[in-house]
Design goal:
This protein has 185 residues and is an alpha+beta fold. Among the domains are: 52 residues, 2-Layer Sandwich (Phosphorylase Kinase, domain 1), CATH 3.30.200; 70 residues, no CATH class. Helix content is 30%, strand content 24%. It contains five helices and eight strands. The strands form three sheets. It has a three-stranded antiparallel sheet, with no helix packed on it. The chain has a three-stranded mixed sheet with strand order 6-7-8. The longest helix is centred in the C-terminal third of the chain and has 19 residues. It is elongated and about 110 Å long. The relative contact order is 0.09.
């Protein structure tokens, strides 16, 4: 039998159409999936990975993050995100993420889970003790300085301008002079 390529395609198409091997010319009904952000509250945040400050829309429903996406209204990223920013959802929704603070006693070898209130109290106690031990009212010349040189801070590129301002005010109120910011590192 001498069949050309074109003839083979015609015969194959006719056989499939007649035999009903799963090929149908009836229109297919499409059903839209419900949006995962349906009934979710949307808020904006800043990507914590670098100092560019890309804006992200976070959708939260019943206290849980259900979606993250770039904010198209942001003049910085205009809705686009890099690969790290695009994976920010995994920062909030991840079974490997710690849910409770861990504490290791001085010279200890084991970490133990502690309560959040205890952890906050311990941090506050350590800051107070360090500040009290290193606080200077006057310098060598006798000038009033009211500062502590026993505590330093490295800020975060994930904080926006208002958060940095508030954090700076808090640190200055403690008397810190060694204050740096991560955006340049």
């Amino acid at each position: 039998m001498d069949v050309s390529r074109r003839g083979f395609l015609k015969i194959s198409g006719a056989v499939l159409a007649v035999s009903g091997l799963g090929v149908s010319l009836k229109p297919v009904s499409a059903y839209a999936q419900p949006l995962k952000i349906k009934y979710a509250k949307e808020t904006t945040t800043i990507c914590p990975y670098c100092s560019v400050g890309c804006s992200i829309i976070v959708s939260v429903r019943q206290g849980k993050v259900v979606n993250t996406e770039g904010d198209p209204d942001s003049p910085i990223n205009k809705g686009s995100l890099c690969s790290k920013g695009g994976s920010i959802y995994q920062m909030a929704v991840n079974e490997n993420r710690l849910g409770k603070p861990l504490y290791r006693e001085p010279y200890g070898t084991e970490w133990k889970e502690v309560d959040w209130e205890w952890a906050f109290e311990k941090i506050a106690e350590n800051i107070k003790n360090s500040r009290d031990a290193s606080f200077k009212v006057t310098n060598e010349k006798g000038e009033l300085v009211n500062r502590t040189e026993g505590i330093a801070s490295v800020g975060s590129a994930a904080m926006d301008l208002e958060e940095c301002f508030t954090y700076q005010k808090f640190l200055r109120s403690l008397g810190l002079v060694y204050i740096e910011h991560q955006a340049r590192i």
